[in-house]
Amino acid sequence: MVEGRAAASGPGARFAATFLLLAAAGLGLYFFPWEQVGLDSGRVYGPYLSAYARMTGVALRLFDPTVSVAGSTINGRFAMQIVRSCDAMEVNVLFAAAVLAFPAPWARRGTALAAGLPALVFCNVARLCTLYFVGAYLPARFDAAHYEIWPLAFLVLATVAFLVAARWMGASPPQSPTLGTLDATR
């Protein structure tokens, strides 16, 4: 029983607990109903979502010169509005929480965040561009692409980004306290 307690308080458990705490805090702040406490979330998220729409509009104009952006709405062959969750913030929060919880030097964690988060933003702009074209040319497939395919694909992408960052940060991900390790010599 003592061995089980030691494994449950080891680096894997510490990583998991820190990750869960950071992820819950980040997602809680992002999804908090600010209006219910008298704050206007539009003042915070409006400019941010408009910036996302402008970045996506710049990319789309390379392929479709009819694209224009007004606020957080992209117009052209297909109109779409960028709202919370279109920004892939959930995945960014999970990636950041995993990197920050990982047992590595702070300088490495900072570098991993500085490289990983912009890469995820770039990938999300590409995701939004593909959704625009799916909406324009395959509108019957838009909901499946938007709600089923891309969320899973983006979560897998962020997981791979974390695994690459973890390897670069100098250690392998902590072992699960219940799974242990495989010994190839036995």
Description:
Helix content is 65%, strand content 4%. The chain has 186 residues and is mostly helical. The protein has one domain (2-168). Strand 1 and strand 2 (73-75) form a beta hairpin. Helix 3 packs across helix 5 and helix 5 packs antiparallel against helix 6 (142-168).
**Share of residues in strands:** under 5%
N/C terminus separation: 24 Å
Give the helices and strands as they follow along the chain: HHHEEEHHH
> What's the structural domain tally?
1
Please give the radius of gyration in angstroms: 20 Å
Mean pLDDT over the residues = 88
Number of helices: 6
- Count every beta strand, where a strand is a DSSP E run of 2 or more residues: 3
Based on secondary structure, the structural category is mainly alpha
Unreliable stretches (pLDDT < 50, length at least 5) are: 182-186
Question: Taking strands numbered 1, 2, ... along the chain, how are they ordered across the largest sheet?
Answer: 1-2-3
Task: Describe the global form.
Answer: globular
Q: How helical, in percent, are the residues?
A: 55-70%
Largest sheet: 3 strands, antiparallel
